[in-house]
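Quick look at the format.
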Amino acid sequence: MSDKTYRVIQWMTGDVGQVGVRHFTDNPVFDLIGVLVHSEDKVGKDAGEIAGIGPIGVLATDDVESIIAMDADCVFYTPVIMDVDTVCRMLRSGKNVVTTSGFFHPTATFRDGGEQIRTACSEGGTSFHAGGIHPGYAGDILPLTLARVVSKIARIKVLEVVNVLDDAPLDHIDWLGFGKEKDKFLSEPTILGLGTVFFAQSMYMLADGLGVTIDDVTSTLEAAVATEDITHELGVIPKGTVAAQRHTWTATVDGTPLIVFEALYATTTSDKLDPPWNFGKTLYRIEIEGDPPTALTLEGVAGPDGKMTHPGYDWTAMGAINAIPDVCDATRGWHTHLDLGLIQPRGLVR
């Protein structure tokens, strides 16, 4: 493995972007040369201070033109929603792009944007890759890895369980529609409810890896209401409103459900819910029904000090960041997990 250093730009400094700033600063494989922010209160601040690690000598800017003019190997692009035109500008400018914002795998939904990205890669001699935790890891890489040790598959189930008040930022309460009347919640999609096209990408990648063709992807949504007021630091989820939700996405192959994703989000324990759902602790779990029946669980654990902070944003960021060297060294084009193969993370042992 070479001693090559990769010059990187961090695009946005939200929860995922701040993980990027901290990692690029600490890992000698990377040289952080620029940081783009959108919030006025961050402009001119040291990026290290924004990320909570103290000054690092890189000042945040909102000047897009100056960032695009930089000579960098890669941009780590972390907005919630991708602006395809902006990403293509970076690719045409000679910078590879690795992102957590989508386009994990080609599907019909992203055909037009995918063609734009491929054209920009061709014109700029660059590469593009998207990764994360889910979609982008737990629903595609982990099931394919687990499938390596089984003889036959009847169904693959991927569970995501999140205890929101313990393991997610409190702004997720509104994002996810908690506290809404049940009928209104079920009829007005939240940010998670709008995620079908993104989760489907992992399903299609998994199906491609298994050599089968998906007929269709469908989704269902269920909700449980609070049987008493659920208080939290920002307020209260009133009794009788949504306090837990179950999203199910199902991909059928040859008319039979083959891949099932469930996202189980709750704000309280089962004794305070109707129906009394008990999802358990925050984790990802992959279950293969087949020969032999097999399961794999991914969860955060306590450190040497006995404390555990759920590493969801770290996983999201690092699932993409660790691919940066391989993406930069790849041939030009849009590279999925299947294209890149086994990623070889660099600079982690330090």
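Next, a different chain entirely:
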Amino acid sequence: MPSHTQFMEEHPPTTKLTELAGLFLKLGFTGFGGPAALISMMHGEVVKRRRWLDDQRFLDLLGATQLIPGPNATEMAIHIGFLRAGWPGLLVAGVCLIVPAMLIVLVLAWAYVRFGYMPQAGWLLDGIKPVIIAVIAQALWELGRKTVKSPLIAAAGITVLILSFRGVNEVALLFGCGLAVMLARNYRRLKPGALAVFALPLPGIGLPVIGAQVFSLPLMLLYFLKIGSILYGSGYVLLAFLHADFVVKLGWLTNKQLIDAITIGQVTPGPVLTTATFIGYLLGGVKGGLLATLGIFLPSFIFVALTNPLIPRMRKSAWLGGLLDGVNVASLALIAAVIWQLGRTSSNIQLDIAVMIISLVLLIRFKINSTWLIGAGALFGLLKASLN
């Protein structure tokens, strides 16, 4: 078997931009099933079919996306584009993965604004809601099994969950948990007095907004830039940030609108974070949808460009590994807190619980694709509408 170096010599990292664009446009239109499905599709295309990368390089890139904020699947596309065609490839691959989903979501957002408050559309979304909660819960279970590797990680996650219910800022919880796990694992490496650095007061990361605010496009853009810059763990943790910022702090969305936005992100192909496109359209029309998309995805392009040359060292760092494990378990705890809050908003909690349990069984036991379940939820919603 040829070595990694031999492989790269036989397959130099140069690819036409049109070929990159064609691949990632295809993935953007057909990539149903969330980030794990998208990454699997990329592996099949760039490793098995096109042989642009070998397995080791692909795994290196995947590990690097876990160490930086942002959506993993989108960042994988950006990394691949950067390796194959430099800066133009970075932009082409990322944009071509995002744009198809963004356009589809804009159309659905228009339809939601036009018809979303009619009884039929309302029942449609009500039918999907418990399925979405089940999909998120199943992802939480799968990610949790891989993340909770020790009693230390389990204790950190439980602590974050408790503090989240007590109203502690979600960004502080993410970074605080990451630092705590990193230090607990590596305290023997510290020199005397080094802990004093971590005791210094840190500047606030959240934007200083308290209570409901008058909507403005620049403020909305700032919040999506913030979320895109600190979104660790999984696209599903987006729930926690959107709820904290747009429902609680700003008062621009209701819980129902939030779960509807998450639903749209799930039922469309491409990155789940195009949920931001939907919210941006609800708040500010087409211009709002475009700005929200720009805000939440722009940090990923910057982080990939900065970290790509550092990947070989990043994946071997004991310090960054501890930080990542702490951030990931905090992300999962925040997801669990938001699932609880959203589940309590049901209009028919007994029926929703039944649908959610059935969906979980189908997801976990029978490995049914979440897209099919979401479609079944939509049909269930339509059935409820026809009986009322």
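Residues 104-386 form one domain.

See the schema section for token definitions.
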